[in-house]
Amino acid sequence: MYKWLRTLLFLFPPETVHRFSMSLLGLFSAKGFTRNLLRRRFSLHDPVLARSFAGLSFKNAVGLAAGFDKNAKYLQSLEVLGYGFVEVGTVTPVAQQGNPGPRLFRLKKDEALINRMGFNNDGVDRVAERLKKWQEKNPAHVRGRMVIGGNIGKNKITPNEDAWKDYETCFLKLFAYVDYFVVNVSSPNTPGLRELQEKESLRKILTCLQRTRPQQEKPKPILLKIAPDLDFKQIDEVLSLSMEIRLSGLVVCNTTVSRQGLITADDQLKRIGAGGLSGRPLRQRSTELVDYISRATQNQIPIIASGGIFNGRDAMEKINAGASLFQVWTGFIYEGPAIVKKILRAQINFNRAEADTAAVSERSR
Ligand SMILES: Cc1cc2nc3c(=O)[nH]c(=O)nc-3n(C[C@H](O)[C@H](O)[C@H](O)COP(=O)(O)O)c2cc1C
């Protein structure tokens, strides 16, 4: 069914489709009757799916990666679709338009996207306002509520020496309204941003955030999102810092600037130009990084995996490599709104199969 709809939707520019379909879904999710219909169709609740991560409880391990709901506008719809958590942002202190369009492209043959959005967002004050309203409707103590992450960044015009101030501003303004934070220094679409992944720049930003928190508030988990284009030496530096300052976790990984192994023709890629590649072609590199990091740290740094997850098999691959939770983005576009339920069903079947195998080996002892 979604394959048909997708053929139609893919006739239109990706950003237009994104806005149109999420607005439509928003209308259906706002009304009690249609909301319940959608919930019944798309979400799946089972206590075996619950996870804990960095001291937080998640109803399931499937999250929506940053950049999909940059401005916290679609939370109701995403909750109806069954997501265990949603990472809003990347949010910057001041609203910015991002790069000129077109800036989002589909590589259909590769089941991938290339984007150079450039942190287009409404600014931290408006996003905080929306999150406040969401929180009033869904207080923290409600069981089974969707966890909200706040992905924070710096404005394009802020020089790298002052970047820490932008992260601190977003951190303080979102503190009351999100459950965890992700420091984004790994987007390829803000000039110079990835230089902040260098150890001392990172130390400055992360330790400043760890020390900063509104008075009388408990600390909130702070994670770092890394680029897949770091080499292993750079990753080792990030890991040693993460262990040293006891970071709550890593999000592995952001989009890649690599174009290796794509089926899409070179001239089409040239026409598209610069941007971060996501989707199927990122799957293997992302899994390799999750595997490397969990081995190198002996699972001491919790990982949220992101990159090329389209189905239950991809999700299990990330879990087996050492991730605790995972996020989808491009998979949502290619597989449709049922992606969460499909992954969760696969997880339940996998759990059952594991339990059966354990029971058989117990009996045969
Ligand atoms: C259009 C688009 C916008 C994105 N914006 C952000 C962003 O603002 N911040 C961020 O940390 N990641 C952003 N990402 C990266 C995703 O969060 C995710 O890490 C990446 O796409 C890999 O996952 P996927 O292969 O499932 O898409 C964006 C990705 C896409 C496709």
Keywords:
365 residues; 3-stranded antiparallel beta sheet; 13 strands; binds flavin mononucleotide
SSE map:
Blueprint: H1 2-9, H2 14-30, H3 32-42, E1 51-53, E2 56-58, E3 62-64, H4 75-80, E4 85-91, E5 104-107, E6 112-115, H5 124-137, E7 147-152, H6 163-174, E8 180-184, H7 199-211, E9 222-226, H8 232-244, E10 249-252, H9 266-272, E11 276-279, H10 283-296, E12 303-306, H11 312-321, E13 325-328, H12 330-335, H13 339-363
Parallel strand pairs: 3-4, 3-13, 4-7, 7-8, 8-9, 9-10, 10-12, 12-13
Antiparallel strand pairs: 1-2, 5-6, 6-11
This protein binds flavin mononucleotide.
Flavin mononucleotide binds at residues 65-67, 70, 89-90, 104, 113, 115, 117, 119, 151, 184, 187, 225, 254-255, 278-279, 282, 306-309, 328-331.
Identify every distinct bound molecule in the structure, by name, code or SMILES: flavin mononucleotide
Number of domains: 1
CATH architecture: Alpha-Beta Barrel
Question: How many whole angstroms does the radius of gyration measure?
Answer: 20 Å
Widest beta sheet: strand line-up: 3-4-7-8-9-10-12-13
Beta strands, count = 13
CATH H-level homologous superfamily name = Aldolase class I
Name the beta content range: 15-25%
Number of helical regions: 13
Rounded mean pLDDT is 92
Morphology call: globular
Unreliable stretches (pLDDT < 50, length at least 5) are none
H/E series: HHHEEEHEEEHEHEHEHEHEHEHEHH
- Per CATH, the class reads Alpha Beta
The helical percent reads 40-55%
| Biggest sheet statistics | 8 strands, parallel, barrel
Category by helix and strand content = alpha/beta
End-to-end C-alpha gap = 47 Å
Assign the CATH topology.
Answer: TIM Barrel
